[in-house]
């Protein structure tokens, strides 16, 4: 269907406009060039027998080949499967065996990984040679395409078991893009830099695809270095950027960030994990626009809009539901919560995923009557603004009381000695679970348990105050950069 050839239609409207830039290679492609590349890639795939519904995998850093192959798959009805290169060889092999791609592109920087993944050796092609661009003869697509057909499978991090393949249809990706454009007021004048890995929904769907549909510009960057990131923001005149809290944590501590005068029109977005309030304070000190979002691979990932004029009075809020999706919070009995009451967050809209690939049981666990049960805890204040309280499975029950780790983490992070922190519940014979804080200190600082308790007593109830501190040089992260609380809990149990 011509209407599903998004990049072809965009190239028809604004062929000469700059679409994608590679920051490291200092190369830029127009919309006409991006469409030519994806058209050639589509013809190349068809010549190699790729048909509607076949999977095409990609193992690469942030590189133009992501858009070549994504839009090529969109043109012919194939299913694009970006692979998380941070995973171990066995984990990647599991994903490939699960989705069974007919072809897989591999970037030279990961050529050494081939030895660990025998499955790849029979189906891979080298993306650095861009051999898929050599064919310029178009082959007509005979398969009929529908907006409900699957377009991409993005695998979740798999911290609670085997990774699950989240199936996103044309409709899912399109409605997330349109909802984002309309709710966030994106225009063709917007420019973003994509450091979030493109194998992750935050890299591909949060800003990259929405901006390419509206005619904006996407700057690709890899190997995040905060000083360099600040320079790229200025050089490319970025108007909006999405990073995870860890990246912002690194950025605000650089000399170049402290000295740089940014355009006040830049919007800094934080996603992927709840953002420490100290980061809000640092951007506010510099007079910069900073706000937080919420999403997940199964929904968007964009679901909320935060009015920049309301951030100061609603610090920590992800905002209000966007234009084209519904949100509600429920108790364990399924009834909706009252204002300021914490419950499970549910989402609904045409941006939701279709299913988990080859996993009907897991799909049925989270999708009920059109509502996605996220497994995340949230509350809504009396003005209709939403706040994420953390994962349902991360809630700590100590002495019969519920403790939401994020509340404790935010307050601990306000201590100047603290660089990073995570709070988990460790099994305990007396309390059921013992509130335990894992802390990374700033260089040349110290903190005692008594000092921490005194600080917490100012704002937190006694049952929320950590009963133990474990100091680490760094917090373990999942393959997508989130703090791995499973690892922390296992480590804490060994210390008891």
UniProtKB/TrEMBL annotation:
It is an enzyme of class 6 (ligase). The keyword Amino-acid biosynthesis does not apply. Residues 10-357 form the AMP-dependent synthetase/ligase domain. The keyword Nucleotide-binding applies. One of its GO terms (molecular function) is acid-thiol ligase activity. PROSITE patterns: AMP_BINDING. Residues 407-482 form the AMP-binding enzyme C-terminal domain. This is Fatty-acyl-CoA synthase. It comes from Bacillus benzoevorans. The lineage of its organism: Bacteria, Bacillati, Bacillota, Bacilli, Bacillales.
């Amino acid at each position: 269907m011509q209407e599903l050839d998004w990049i072809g239609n965009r190239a028809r409207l604004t062929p000469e406009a700059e679409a994608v830039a590679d920051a490291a290679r200092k190369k830029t492609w127009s919309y006409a060039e991006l469409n030519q590349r994806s058209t050639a890639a589509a013809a190349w795939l068809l010549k190699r027998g790729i048909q509607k519904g076949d999977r095409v995998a990609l193992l690469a850093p942030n590189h133009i080949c992501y858009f070549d192959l994504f839009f090529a798959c969109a043109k012919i009805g194939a299913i694009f499967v970006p692979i998380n290169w941070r995973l171990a060889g066995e984990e990647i092999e599991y994903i490939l065996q699960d989705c069974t791609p007919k072809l897989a592109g591999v970037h030279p920087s990961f050529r050494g990984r081939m030895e660990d993944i025998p499955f790849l050796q029979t189906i891979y092609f080298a993306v650095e040679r861009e051999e898929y661009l050599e064919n310029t003869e178009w082959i007509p697509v005979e398969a009929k395409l529908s907006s409900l057909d699957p377009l991409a499978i993005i695998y979740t991090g798999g911290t609670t078991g085997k990774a699950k393949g989240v199936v996103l249809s044309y409709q899912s990706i399109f409605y997330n893009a349109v909802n984002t454009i309309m709710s966030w007021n994106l225009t063709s004048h917007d420019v973003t830099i994509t450091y979030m890995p493109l194998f992750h929904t935050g890299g591909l769907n949060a800003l990259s695809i929405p901006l390419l549909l509206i005619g904006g510009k996407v700057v690709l960057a890899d190997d995040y270095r905060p000083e360099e990131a600040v320079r790229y923001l200025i050089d490319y005149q970025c108007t909006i950027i999405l990073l995870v809290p860890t990246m912002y944590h690194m950025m605000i501590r650089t000399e170049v960030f402290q000295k740089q005068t940014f355009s006040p029109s830049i919007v800094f977005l934080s996603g992927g994990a709840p953002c420490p309030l100290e980061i809000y304070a640092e951007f506010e000190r510099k007079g910069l626009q900073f706000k937080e979002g919420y999403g997940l691979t199964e929904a968007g990932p964009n679901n909320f809009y935060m009015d920049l004029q309301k951030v100061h009075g609603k610090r920590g809020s992800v905002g209000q539901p966007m234009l084209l999706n519904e949100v509600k919070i429920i108790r364990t009995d399924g009834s909706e919560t009252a204002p300021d009451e914490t419950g499970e967050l549910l989402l609904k809209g045409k941006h939701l995923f279709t299913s988990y690939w080859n996993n009907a049981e897991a799909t049925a666990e989270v999708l009920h009557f059109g509502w996605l049960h996220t497994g995340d805890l949230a509350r809504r204040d009396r003005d209709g603004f939403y706040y994420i309280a953390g994962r349902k499975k991360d809630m700590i029950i100590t002495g019969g009381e519920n403790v939401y780790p994020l509340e404790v983490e935010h307050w601990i992070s306000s201590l100047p000695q603290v660089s990073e922190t995570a709070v988990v519940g460790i099994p305990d014979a007396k309390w059921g679970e013992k509130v335990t804080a894992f802390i990374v200190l700033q260089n040349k600082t110290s903190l005692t348990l008594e000092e921490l308790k005194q600080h917490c007593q100012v704002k937190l109830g006694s049952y929320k105050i950590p009963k133990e501190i474990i100091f680490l040089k760094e917090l373990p992260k999942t393959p997508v950069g989130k703090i791995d609380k499973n690892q922390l809990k296992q480590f804490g149990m060994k210390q008891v």
